[in-house]
Design brief:
The protein has 126 residues and is mainly alpha-helical. The protein has one domain. Helix content is 97%, strand content 0%. The chain has two helices and no strands. Helix 1 packs antiparallel against helix 2. Keywords: Coiled coil.
């Protein structure tokens, strides 16, 4: 947006410069020959065209800036949503890992208990 502001200042300066040239043109018309008047008028017309072009570019840049700002805000919202989903997924993964570790621990206890029961049964059979 700083570029847009800077461009606005340049356009304003060109407009002021154009007004000054018009004032000088009026002075020249009052005391100069037709060739000087024609040259000054031609230069003023060229500067007016440049000012109008710059104004159109400034408007286009401002509109593009607004569009980009809107897209940025939408992206930030999507980023926030994705971060929330990621945190939830990570919490689920931690919970699943804890559950898995608990199941492994129970399995090991069951194996040990089955082993003890098997040994006891074998001892009874002998």
């Amino acid at each position: 947006m700083d570029h847009v502001r800077d461009a606005g200042r340049v356009i304003a300066a060109l407009g002021t410069r154009n007004a000054e040239l018009r004032r000088q043109l009026d002075e020249v018309r009052a005391g100069a020959g037709p060739e000087a008047v024609a040259a000054a008028e031609q230069r003023a017309l060229g500067l007016e065209a440049e000012v109008e072009w710059l104004r159109a570019e400034l408007l286009t840049s401002a509109e593009r800036g607004i569009e980009l700002q809107t897209r940025l805000e939408a992206s930030e919202g999507q980023n926030t949503e994705l971060q929330t989903r990621l945190k939830a997924s990570m919490a689920e993964a931690r919970s699943a890992r804890a559950d898995s570790l608990e199941l492994i621990h129970r399995l090991e206890e069951s194996r040990a208990e089955a082993w003890r029961a098997s040994e006891a049964l074998e001892a009874e059979i002998r």
